[in-house]
Write a structure and sequence with these properties.
Oligomer: single chain
Radius of gyration: 18 Å
Strand content: 5-15%
Strand order of the largest sheet: 1-2
Low-confidence stretches: 1-35, 260-267
Shape: globular
Distance between the termini: 38 Å
Number of helices: 11
Number of domains: 1
Structural class: mainly alpha
Order of helices and strands: EEHHHHHHHHHHEEEEH
Mean pLDDT: 77
């Protein structure tokens, strides 16, 4: 299965056991003067999986669904800053995809309503609204259709942010989604300690995290975002950097960069031991807790 993630973003849809790819053309993002060039930023985006991709990998790894790992159910009040809204919207988008790929209708409906509320707060009602909810309600028993609809909506949100030149918000949308995906993976690794595929998914995030940090450093965020999100992600990178260099493992599924494209297959995996895994779990849990405490 080949993943092509250019800054033409990819939307993945599981159908008949395979992945179909739909490309959505994006505009170029505009970094700060000190940040990487547009071309470098394109390459950064290559390695950051979408919420649907992360949750599909988790499901295909044979992991069970756990509602305890979802964002807590509470009344989301309007945020004072759009950056907070985008960050939490990314988190909830991953939870929405997680519930959807496991066909959890109650959780999917609840999370969709929260995503719509947040989208309205940053003027995205044109791309996700009550009509979106009606489409999903009408296809709630068809997982393939649901994946198409929800995946499309995520990238339409991303498209609209860039059309409005809110490129920093798009970066935080991706960041929140990635944080929640790793949180779910780490939580599942505790529930099913014998499942090696989830450890491989977590260890593969080393490359993704490097690019995610570089992406966020291309923008000037407020102290709250820097102190509670960007700096802790840098600390998480230090933990990943301490993991020994990857060794060949033909029994695992991982991501590899080939000719500027990421491919999913049997390649290399990092030697992730239980000590490293606990450090990663604790740090990602702390970052997610920061979101719960500081941004709600």
């Amino acid at each position: 299965m080949k993943k092509v993630l250019t800054y033409i973003f990819l939307v993945s849809v599981i159908s008949c056991g395979s992945v179909e790819e739909k490309k959505v053309v994006q505009d170029t993002i505009y970094p700060t003067e000190e940040g990487p060039s547009d071309g470098v930023l394109e390459n950064i985006y290559y390695s950051i999986p979408s919420p649907i991709e992360t949750t599909i990998l988790i499901r295909e790894g044979g992991l069970k669904f756990s509602s305890d790992l979802l964002f807590p159910e509470n009344e989301l009040m309007p945020f004072s800053k759009k950056t907070s809204t985008a960050l939490v919207l990314g988190v909830l988008s991953t939870d929405l995809n997680y519930a959807m790929v496991y066909e959890k209708q109650k959780q999917t409906s609840r999370l969709l309503e929260e995503v719509i509320k947040l989208a309205k707060q940053i003027n995205l009602s044109a791309v996700i609204n009550d009509q979106t909810k009606d489409r999903i309600d009408n296809n709630i028993n068809n997982r393939d259709s649901m994946q198409i609809i929800i995946s499309d909506q995520f990238w339409e949100i991303d498209n609209m942010l860039k059309e409005n030149e809110d490129h920093d918000l798009a970066a935080l949308l991706i960041t929140g989604g990635w944080i929640e995906g790793v949180h779910i993976a780490c939580g599942l690794s505790l529930i099913d300690t014998s499942n090696k595929s989830i450890k491989d998914i977590i260890s593969d995030q080393r490359i993704v995290l490097e690019n995610l940090i570089q992406l966020n450093k291309s923008f000037e965020f407020n102290d709250r975002i820097n102190d509670y999100i960007i700096s802790p992600l840098t600390e998480l990178k230090t933990i990943f950097d301490s993991i020994p260099y990857p060794i060949e493992n033909l029994d695992s599924t991982s991501i590899k960069l080939i000719d500027n494209e990421y491919e999913l297959g049997n390649y290399l995996t990092f030697n992730l031991n239980e000590t490293d895994l606990n450090l990663i779990r604790n740090k990602i849990s702390s970052i997610r807790q920061n979101i719960l405490i500081q941004f709600l």
